[in-house]
Amino acid sequence: MNRAVRHARYLPVQKLEISLFPFLSIFLCVMGVLSFINVLNSFSTPQKIEMSAQIEQGYKVAYQVFNLPDGIISVPPTKYLNDLKKVLDDDGKATLDDIIYKRKQMMSSLQAHVGPIKQAAIEPDIDDILEMLHNIRMVNELALKANYLYEEFLLFGIYPNGGQAYQKIRDVMTFTQDSASITVGLEPLDSNWTLNLKSGQNTNKSSNHISNQGTAQGKQ
Amino acid sequence: MKDLISLDSLTDIVSNSVGILIIFAVINLIHDNNKTYQLEIPLEHPTNLAPVFFICKNERILKMDTATLFSNAALQATRGAAKSKQIFPLDFKGLFGKIDKENGISFYVNDTSEWQPFQNIEKRNSAIQNALSSIDPKKEFAYFFVYDSSTDDNANASGFESFRKAREYLKMHFVKSGWQPVNDEAPAHICDLSFSPRCVYLPSYLGQ
Fold this sequence. Notes:
A: about 220 residues; two-stranded parallel ribbon; 7 strands; B: about 210 residues; four-stranded antiparallel beta sheet
């Protein structure tokens, strides 16, 4: 064994040193960007809301009307009407069938809407308002007549600049007898709150109740 | 030979932790997107309580001194303001008025600089806190005319946030409150029910 070979054997082993700096740099950059997008998304994503009222007996059902600058979006309840139909006489069933059919049509057209749901708002027509009030009254009277625990009431959600549509409906309500027996609730809504159409047909029996009385943080 | 400290373990721990955190964040986000918040909306109730009126606009709030406003409006009415339906100054905190048969006295807001910022509701002994505290829950309730208009689609720019804050304060003091949205086209108005069926001011609250 010559001297050069012996010398090479005792040389320290040259480990392959890879600098982690580029990896860490890219990794942290990606994490930062992802976190930023996440935070941004949580602020900008509209919060889905559903309006309800605290009713002890739990048989009252909300007819939701969202008031936007461009008009209103009506979310009529349909879920419990089939149960109500079972206890009605033939005339009542025919009347209720008609109401259910119209409400399902309204919901279908809303659910078929493509794009932001707020764009589905339509200018409230006086005849439509009168029909809505008449139908609510009819349903309530049919339920009362059949001694069935069911009552519909109107809930207005007012978005910024949505007061005009609300004023129009209340004006009509002032001068029609149909609205005399209808309970009303109203609440200011933030512009980033959007409505949930799937559960819009439910009643206030759902869990996950959040009180918004007196605080904007009620949505938390 | 440069003696480098190995960062392998540290990098391993950091990347694992951050990865798990990101998975949690994504799950949370997906969950949040599917979540529906249920707002409990107070319902209007008939009452024998007398309304104490407030106006909320531009993050500011004003208690309407109805005695002063009505006497100033009456003075204007004697000068023919009711006949001509003209808008006249009420000499009260930037408010202007109009008298007509449909709405009684309508109130137009010209300037809110003299009104109290809604943040003062929480300030001890501020004018607005004193005004809210002076409401007797056995005899009175607060009724708010809340401006819904905002230029930048932000609820804070309207009167919504002021109203929410005031309602929260009143609720803590067992005072009932009601409200209606108003704007420049449909301004706040006060009249008697015998005058028009529009003149209804009801408190809204949860429960029966």
